[in-house]
Write a structure and sequence with these properties.
The complex is a heterotrimer. Chain B is of the alpha/beta class. Chain B contains 19 helices and 16 strands. Classes of the chains: A mainly alpha, B alpha/beta, C mainly alpha.
Chain lengths: ~270, ~425, ~300
């Protein structure tokens, strides 16, 4: 009995300690965002604001127009997530359940291509966008990232567990393949689709390199690009930076909290087999 | 749901057709703080010319260089832009900017004689003028006058050997942890400013080869390295200086070679009590050369792009920003020093002792080599000198390596120049 | 009644239709640019060539040869290896450690802790880099303040060439360990509790249970996590870009190969050279991945 209590205590102590260390930077970020200008720049650094103020947030949204970047990010990330789910789910299901010529070699090729570092092709993709007239457009920001090998891989793993009997039964009933995909497979794959959607949303929301390269109008800027440019000009204004950081991090965190059940289920089914 | 997605996508893509219509607003790109400030200035221009609209795009400095080049490749260039004058050779090599000689000759507002010659000259390539200077920048000595006076030097000495003696004296009095000069090891401007003062050409033969083993550069490099070796300057990168203003206030260094933006920063970030104890002075000159030492001709110009469908309107913006009155207002708003001499008779500027050194120094400035590869070469200069400063490598070997690096960086340029010469001969 | 062959044909057609959008996008935005990149790496395409394409010359393997002689490239390679070799095991250990803790039978509120540990993964790098830059501040940072508590002197985390890369390793580990942790948790859950029960009844202690049950059964997951972490970490780019301002850090201490490639391409417009670096990186990752796979799989035999 005592050994059990000791173990329980030890495990929980470790978990709590880990939580504190993990959360510390984020909590300080929130705390600093409510401080007045210059307050954070002292030694030893303050943990809590003397008097909490919304000054920094006001500065962000009123003077620096972060509201627009926020909406841009939301629009962009949602579009990307939507498109990505549809495209990758279709391909993942096809690789899992539909026999078509060269299916095997194609999939092996895709897996091998996962090793290619993303930055290899950045410049060439940019030049490609230029010739397609998509520079400085949202399409240019989204399109290159819609199809994801990792996404196809995830869906294929998950879709592999859809019972063949179900699909055959539907075929016998006269349903077309696309209809089967849309009405039967997609609903069954909901968890992995949520995982995929969340991953893509987060990826696009947090991406700062690609939008920075593709978008020239600062009115089109996403939140992360705006934050990055803020850090260039106002690097001494720590509190303002922290407020900007909170605005960027919070929505992503909330989204995750809302969808985490499905997200975890998707990963659980997907990440195991080799 | 798919239709919704497609619809969103189309809307997003359609929302960005660039105006090729000449009557659209003039697009101006400005960087950093200047970008924030210029928005306020152009209102006046729009009032004078109803129908002329100016759209300002503010871009952070850290992304400015990349943005210009991605803009060029992506064919998304503005009509007029601020341009660091070391970037003008690149833009000219791309044939992206418009030569402005005829416009300047015909202009009532832009008068070349009213500009500092060394600065004006940075915009001239192969005999053509590619930009109009907007604000200027050069490097000179910011220092703690009280510390220097206590060491027996009422002002910054005028020769390098005396300058060294001042540093030695300050260090001797200050004790351990005190230095005469802050000299970051990872900034090209530090050694190159000294080199320019020593009369070094930096590149030879029309920018075809490196000249880093030439006697003038060697003299400057030896002086530079000697400061670290003899403990007069700490061998630190600028990122290792946690807070330069605090450390200056604490007297950890008595002097620092830097530019005009620090006029405002020193005023803001040094304590009230020390505001009377710091000031500026022009560069000391190497022994045997006239004072002040020649410094870097920096700053930004305004350029007009070849791809612009509204060059006349863009030129109007350039003229407006070049007017002495606008230059004075610009200075008042952001502290950047005006490129036009007549703007300097503004009482606040003329009367300020700390700014007076800049006024003098600006008459003695020289451009860095006007080759597109200069930024790359400049980076190599500090990369090769830093190990020597930290005592890890010898100077001779590093200068040879530097010349070697520059030789391969400039190979393409040599090939192109030869090709052009061969073509002209035909 | 439809014949089997019609079904098969219909299946094949639909299959191709469904993979088409994905494959098309990948061909256009991945395959094509990569091939173009390979071709460009054999030329000296640069700023001059952008203005005037005739100024590009085919130079064969010269870009690659130049790389081998460039000390900055070797520094970047060394930095990247350091990051992978130190940061990789650190992150994986943290992930595994927390996963083991979370999976403990006696834990209350596992979901809460799991969410907390995953939170850094969800955050925007630019945002947390700003926070961490501040935490690392030599004078005002929380980290040095905490160290000071234990009597350790202030370290200039981001400015000192010796500490800059470790600082990035630490931040990256904090940010990424949650992702692999979730995968480990899934893997651990797949191990039947009955095995542990049986072992306990046989008198096996916790360490023995770990060694004899957990390790072998977790091996495939461990391999997967190891490989993805290695591949991801070799591509280190965003962290040093944000923390060191795209410059490479003090004496290039935080310059990674990907960042070096970016600088060559987007700052100096030496596109040929940049493409060459990209391919060297790809080769390195491929080599390292194959090596790791062989080692880990061999170790289980």
């Amino acid at each position: 009995m005592k050994r059990k209590t000791l173990s329980t205590l030890a495990v929980h102590a470790a978990l709590v300690a880990g939580s504190v260390v993990t959360l510390a930077p984020l909590l300080w970020m929130v705390s600093a965002s409510f401080m007045s200008a210059g307050e954070a720049n002292s030694s030893p650094p303050p943990l809590l604001p003397l008097r909490a103020t919304l000054d920094q947030y006001r500065e962000l949204f009123v003077r620096l127009d972060m509201g627009r970047s926020f909406l841009n990010s939301a629009l962009l990330a949602s579009c990307a997530a939507l498109l990505s789910v549809v495209v990758n789910a279709a391909a993942g299901y096809a690789f899992a359940k539909l026999r078509f010529p060269a299916r095997g070699p194609l999939f092996t090729g895709l897996l091998a291509a996962m090793v290619i570092p993303g930055q290899v092709a950045m410049l060439q993709v940019f030049l490609l966008l230029r010739s397609m007239g998509l520079v400085n457009s949202y399409a240019g920001v989204i399109l290159p990232g819609v199809a994801s090998i990792f996404g196809i891989f995830l869906v294929r793993q998950y879709a592999g567990s859809v019972p063949d009997e179900l699909l055959d039964a539907a075929r016998i009933d006269g349903a077309g393949e696309l209809r089967i995909f849309w009405s039967i497979v997609l609903p069954l794959c909901r968890p992995i689709l949520v995982t995929l959607g969340v991953l893509t949303f987060l990826g696009t929301w947090n991406d700062f390199m690609w939008p920075l390269i593709v978008l020239t109008d600062d009115s089109k800027w996403t939140l992360t690009v705006a934050l990055a440019s803020l850090s260039g000009e106002h690097v001494q204004d720590t509190e303002l930076m922290m407020a900007g950081a909170v605005v960027t991090v919070l929505p992503a965190l909330l989204l995750f909290l809302a969808l985490q059940r499905s997200y975890i289920d998707g990963i659980t089914a997907g990440g195991l087999k080799e | 749901m798919r239709a919704l997605a497609a619809g969103l996508l189309l809307a997003a893509a359609a929302a960005c057709t660039r105006g090729a219509d000449p009557s659209d607003p003039v697009r101006l790109w400005a960087f950093g703080r200047e970008g924030e400030v210029v928005r306020e200035l152009v209102g006046e221009l729009e009032r004078r010319h109803p129908g002329l609209k100016v759209e300002v795009q503010q871009i952070p400095w850290t992304a400015a260089h990349e943005k210009l080049l991605t803009g060029f490749v992506g064919r998304e260039m503005p009509d007029v832009a601020q341009m660091g004058n070391t970037w003008i050779p690149e833009m000219a090599a791309l044939d992206a900017i418009e030569p402005l000689d005829t416009r300047v000759a015909a202009s009532a507002s832009v008068r070349p004689g009213d500009y500092y010659p060394g600065i004006w000259e940075t915009n001239v390539l192969d005999g053509a003028l590619y930009g109009v200077p907007w604000y200027v920048d050069t490097r000179l000595v910011f220092y703690r006058s009280d510390l220097l006076a206590a060491a027996g030097f009422p002002e910054v000495p005028r020769s390098w050997s005396a300058w060294r003696r001042a540093m030695e004296e300050v260090k001797r009095r200050g004790g351990p942890g005190r230095f005469g000069l802050l000299l970051p090891t990872n900034e090209w401007a530090q050694p190159v400013t000294l080199a320019v003062a020593a009369g070094a050409e930096l590149l030879s033969d029309g920018g075809r080869h490196g000249a880093f083993r030439a006697p003038e550069f060697r003299r400057a490099a030896e002086f530079f390295i000697g400061l670290y070796r003899d403990g007069l300057a700490p061998p630190l990168a600028n990122s290792q200086v946690a807070n330069l203003y605090q450390q200056m206030a604490a007297g950890e260094f008595a002097m620092y070679v830097t530019g005009p933006w620090n006029l405002g920063e020193f005023r803001r970030r040094l304590p009230e009590s020390l505001q009377g104890s710091w000031t500026t002075a022009p560069l000391p000159a190497p022994d045997g050369m006239p004072w002040p030492g020649v410094s870097l001709a920096g700053g930004s110009s305004l350029v007009v792009f070849r791809s612009s469908p509204r060059k006349d309107a863009a030129w109007k913006v350039v003229e407006f920003l070049s007017e002495p009155a606008t230059q004075k207002r610009f200075w008042a708003l952001c502290g950047d020093l005006p490129a036009r001499r007549s703007a300097w008779d503004e009482p606040a500027l003329a009367g300020d002792a700390k700014t007076a050194s800049f006024r003098l120094q600006l008459e003695h400035v020289r451009a860095t080599p006007k080759v597109p590869e200069w930024e790359q070469i400049a980076a190599k200069v500090w990369e090769r000198l830093e190990p020597v400063a930290r005592g890890a490598r010898g100077l001779d070997g590093s200068l040879s390596s530097l010349d070697g690096d520059v030789e391969s960086i400039l190979e393409k340029r040599r090939w192109l120049l030869d090709r052009k010469a061969a073509g002209a001969r035909k | 009644m439809r014949g089997l062959s019609t079904w098969r044909a219909r299946e094949a057609r639909s299959g191709l239709l469904l993979v088409a959008p994905g494959l098309l996008l990948l061909s256009v935005f991945l395959a094509l640019p990569v091939v173009a990149s390979l071709l460009l790496s054999l030329t000296d395409f640069d700023l001059y060539a952008i203005g005037d394409p005739s100024a590009a010359r085919v130079v064969g393997l010269r870009n690659f040869a130049r790389l081998l002689h460039d000390p900055v490239f070797w520094k970047a390679l060394g930095n990247t290896f350091f990051f992978v070799v130190v940061g990789g095991p650190l992150t994986v250990s943290l992930s595994l450690g927390t996963a083991l803790l979370l999976n403990h039978r006696l834990v209350r509120f596992p979901g809460l802790f799991r969410t907390i540990y995953f939170a850094p993964v969800v955050t925007t790098l630019v945002a947390v880099a700003a926070v961490w830059k501040y935490l690392y501040h030599p004078r005002f940072g929380l980290l040095n303040a905490a160290l000071g508590f234990f009597g350790i002197g202030a370290i200039d985390w981001l400015g000192d060439p010796h500490w800059a890369m470790p600082a990035i390793v630490l931040m990256a580990a904090w940010k990424n360990f949650g992702a692999s942790m979730i995968i480990f948790v899934a893997g651990l859950k797949a191990i039947p509790e009955s095995l542990y029960e049986a072992a306990r009844l046989d008198g096996a202690g916790p360490l023995q249970r770990f060694r004899l049950i957990t390790v072998p059964l977790l091996a495939p997951t461990f391999l997967f996590v190891g490989l993805t972490t290695t591949i991801g970490y070799f591509q280190l780019f965003a962290e040093p870009y944000v923390m060191s301002g795209g410059d490479g850090g003090p004496m290039n201490a935080t310059l990674s190969v990907a960042l070096f490639m970016y600088k060559q391409g987007f700052r100096w417009w030496s596109i040929g050279s940049s493409a060459a670096i990209a391919f060297v990186l790809f080769a390195v990752i491929l080599g390292a991945t194959l090596l790791q796979r062989r080692l880990q799989k061999g170790g289980e035999a």
